Amino acid sequence: MTQASDDQLLIERAQEGDRAAFDTLVSRYEDRAYKYAYRLTRNQDLAADIVADSFIRVYRALKNFRGQSAFSTWLYRIVTNCFLDRRKRNKEQGNVSMDEQMEVSTGTISRQYEDDGPGPDELAERNARESAIQGALEHLPDYQKAMLIMYHVEAKSYEDIAATLDLPIGTVKSRLNRARVALRDQLDSQMELFQIG
Amino acid sequence: MKPDKARELFSDYLENSLDAGLKQAFERALQGDPQLNAEYESFASMITSFDTMRDEEIAVPTDLHETISRRLDKHVWDEKQTAKSGGFFKNWRMTLLGSAAVVAIFATVIAFTQNGKDTVREAGTIPGIRKVDSPTTADFGVKDGQVFLSAKSAKPTAVEVTNIENGEQLGEFNVNGTLNSPLSNDSENAKLLQVKFSEESEPLLIVLPGKTQLDAAAGEGSVLELAKAISDTYRTPMIIRLKDRNAMVNWDFTEVGDVTELASYLQGMNLSYSLREDNLVVLSDNN
Asked: Any CB–CB contact under 8 A between A29 and chain B?
């Protein structure tokens, strides 16, 4: 049985009120959802909160899910929307900016590589680049940030992103292009980090 | 090719999505301009660095599943409690204007007046009143910012008011003459209200904004949830006339300005957002 058909069975059972089936879906996708939410927020508590909110939205809307897209695509859409909603609410309420809560220290990132990876100098350079990118991402519109992370970090295809955001593929491509240019502009003063040689 | 034009094509070149002619022109521009070439190399390096971030190992909290389950349990419990306690009644402002007998049934939900008995309050001009099923006519209207349910019936007709989201029946009463009932929503969120006349098959639907302007400008869900989001965001009551209430949609009107822009935006979703003579909005299918 494929993952998709297995998901479909769980969804059907959950739609009939089987909570255990829903819990199995949660178990199957919670890690992936959390990692995506964390990449968007760089904050553990906030990421967990967004994922919990997302699964509540899934629970509430599941009866209307007709399998037009894969469950994972639908979940990504909901996590993205939860993130966008949260950001907008925080901005309107004048809450502490998530920028200040970002966990982007090189110390955190330096623990993310295995021992057989690059040497210390190269690692330090890589950390500096990634920190610069993380910082620049925070200055992009949230929608651009989500698209860039989906494509470059989550390795989603244009087709997947189009399905997730319910946009035509051409629009996804053009928006991603604009987002990359915006990212480059944000990094303008730090481009020496990315110079070759 | 000028450097500025070439810079615009960095991303497309990297993606190998330029057509052959443009690709050649771009490469000639890079070869002829060392500064531009260095900029492109930096850009490509930036994208490569970005791509390597997918290797980042992110530790998932050990209690994540428990956190989600706890929140879900609370959500399910809250829903059940709301259904049990009739919490929706508490959200509706009581406006006593009419027959005591009917108010006893309908107390905290809506209030109304009926012709021929106690207080009579004219409905005023409510354009667009539509025939439901002879001899009863019913419609929503608005006057001085107050939404009304208006109905006329030559014979006793049962009316049922329901919270469409949880199916909770809010009241049932008989109209015999003229009903003119103010409707208000004192809860935080927009609410969907269904009014059904026993003699008709198609119920009337309205969404009323809550007390607070909420941020619901981006989201996904059924068209009814979209209607609530519009009501929450634009603070407007709205009559709903949709064939498929369960159709799933995504919306994002964060960059949509006033209601004129909103109408255009909804047009793109095959929905019609129109203003009646009495300034009451109608959301309907675009056909």
From this structure: no
* Fold observed for domain A106-137+139-197: Arc Repressor Mutant, subunit A (1.10.10)
What are the strands, taking DSSP E only, across B209-279?
218-222, 238-241, 248-252, 271-275
The percent helix, strand, coil of chain B (3-state, each to 5) is 35, 30, 35
Query: Cα(A68)–Cα(B246) distance, rounded to whole angstroms?
Result: 14
Q: Is the pLDDT of residue A197 over 80?
A: no
pTM of the complete model: 0.53
Query: Distance, in angstroms, between A11 CA and closest chain B CA?
Result: 16
Q: A5 CA to chain B: closest CA distance, Å?
A: 22
Yes or no: domain A1-102 corresponds to CATH 3.30.565.10:
no
Output the DSSP codes for B142-209. Answer: EETTEEEEEEEEEEEEEEEEEETTTTEEEEEEEEEEEEEEEE---SSS-EEEEEEETT-SS-EEEEE-
Residue ranges of domains in chain A: 1-102, 106-137+139-197
Rounded average pLDDT over B187-215: 77
How far does A145 lie from chain B, in Å, by closest CA? 12
Are B42 and A191 a contacting pair at CB < 8 A?
A: yes
B132, containing H or E segment: strand B130-133
Q: Is the minimum CB–CB distance between A27 and chain B shorter than 8 Å?
A: yes
State the Cα–Cα distance between residues A8 and A27, nearest whole angstrom.
Answer: 15
Segment holding A12, helix H or strand E:
helix A3-15
Beta bridge partners of B221: B249
Say yes or no: ipTM exceeds 0.95. no
Lookup result for tokens 């009814």: B224
Over residues A148-196, the pLDDT tens digits come to 999 998 889 999 998 888 788 888 888 888 899 888 888 887 777 776 5
